[in-house]
Amino acid sequence: MTKNIIDAGLVEQHNAKQRAELQADYDALGGMLSRRGVDIEALTAKAQTFGVAVPSWGAGTGGTRFARFPGKGEPRDVTEKMEDCAVINQLTRATPAVSLHFPWDKPADPKGLREQADSLGLGFDAVNSNTFQDQAGQSATYKFGSLTSTNKASRELAVQHNIDCIELGKTLGSKGLTVWVGDGANFPGQSNLRGALERYIDSARGIYAALPDDWQMYIEHKLFEPAFYCSVIADWGTSFAVAQTLGDKAKCLVDLGHHAPNTNIEMIVARLAQFGKLGGFHFNDSKYGDDDLDSGSIDPFQLFLIFNELADSQARDGAAFNPSYMLDQSHNVTDPIESLMSSAVEVQRAFVQAALVDRTALVGFQESNDVLQAAQTLKKAFRTDVSPILAMARLRSGGAIDPVGAYRAAGYREQVAVKRPPKAGASGSGIV
Ligand SMILES: [Mn+2]
Fold first, then answer.
1. Fewer Cβ atoms within 10 A, N terminus or C terminus of the chain?
2. How far does residue 321's CA lie from ligand 1's centre (Å)?
3. Spatial contact of 346 and 302, defined as CB atoms under 8 Å apart
4. Which residues partner with 152 through β-bridges?
């Protein structure tokens, strides 16, 4: 029996007020879709299968390199982060897993943490290692790199930390390790470009060797920051080459914010999928750089086009194509729970809109080079407001018709603000 953090009766009360309106909107959309030959019930059932993992570090207020403005009732340890993640899933029914970050979330009692997750109806997606900052008392520094450091002791420490993350993840029931390093150089000449990647591959081999057979290692690339001249794993090409070199269990992770402006991310997705190396996503949105804004808040069309490629690969490859979906955002000026709920819904929206694309018609227009109609076929799906489908999927799965409204009505933030006074050295949240 899954424990509800928010009283289920309160959610039901909130839903009751909106149920009739939702039904009317749903019926109207169902009629419209039926004229297009689309069964709304099939889409709603599909929406109910969608899941995106919540990043534990997203449950606290993030910050920038200038400042952090903490919110009230922030989770102070991994147990409290799990409670907030459970609220997000209870109301959206679209976030059944949590992605942890070590050592920020290192549990004193890993078995106990797994039991807590089980009781809340949550699982664990990929665990994340952290070699982009030194921990107190660390024997060697990451100041000049971790997996690629010229200092052997730093490299060995970073490899061992990743192996420790795998061990912890095994206890928790995770099946993946995401590796992102900030390694790179701030000045031309600081680092031998080829030598740094050689060291990366050598270190990564040590991590890969510790990976269980049913695990995946996700290599996350990022163009720049914290390295401002060059990053060792700067782009999908490097990530792909590393994944190919390491073996079948190594795949590429695409964080939407980790590219130069105007990069065609959906094409990267198509390329990685074609060669069996698309491991997963960190969803977020951005205007300028790695802004880590809420998914779909700036460029929902890009998100749709990415899911259009995913739907295409799903159609080609079937169940074998199963990338991991995770959010990776930093909430500086909003309530993190509200942002994560809204973002999960936006990613789910793109998933449903992509399922609405008339693929037979699209292929026909592509084959006959009817450019305008091909483009219109995508736009037709993108312009369809599938909100009633998403709300109905939530309602049928036991969630809230309006997650943010139900969350506010339940007064959760006010309650945890009393229970969770700020404490020094609370575990990390921020931008990765
Ligand atoms: Mn990321």
1. N
2. 21
3. no
4. none
Ligand 1 center–CA 431 separation, angstroms: 8
Å from CA of 152 to ligand 1 middle: 26
Task: Determine the straight-line distance between the first and last CA of the chain, rounded to whole angstroms.
Answer: 34
Enumerate residues 6+ apart whose C-beta is below 8 A from 75: 59, 60, 81, 83, 84, 416, 420, 426
What is the whole-number distance in angstroms between the Cα of residue 419 and the centre of ligand 1? 30
Ligand 1: distance of its center to the CA of 63 in Å? 15
Statement: the pTM of the whole predicted model exceeds 0.70: yes
Instruction: Tell me the residues surrounding ligand 1 (ion) with CB < 5 Å.
Output: 255, 282, 328
What is the per-residue pLDDT for 432?
44
* pLDDT tens digits, 250-292: 999 999 999 999 999 999 999 999 999 999 999 999 999 999 9
33-58 mean pLDDT: 98
Q: What is the 328 CA–ligand 1 centroid distance (Å)? A: 5
Exposed, middle or buried, 214 (CB in 10 Å: 0-12/13-18/19+)?
Answer: exposed
Q: Which residue has the tokens 């460029």?
A: 299
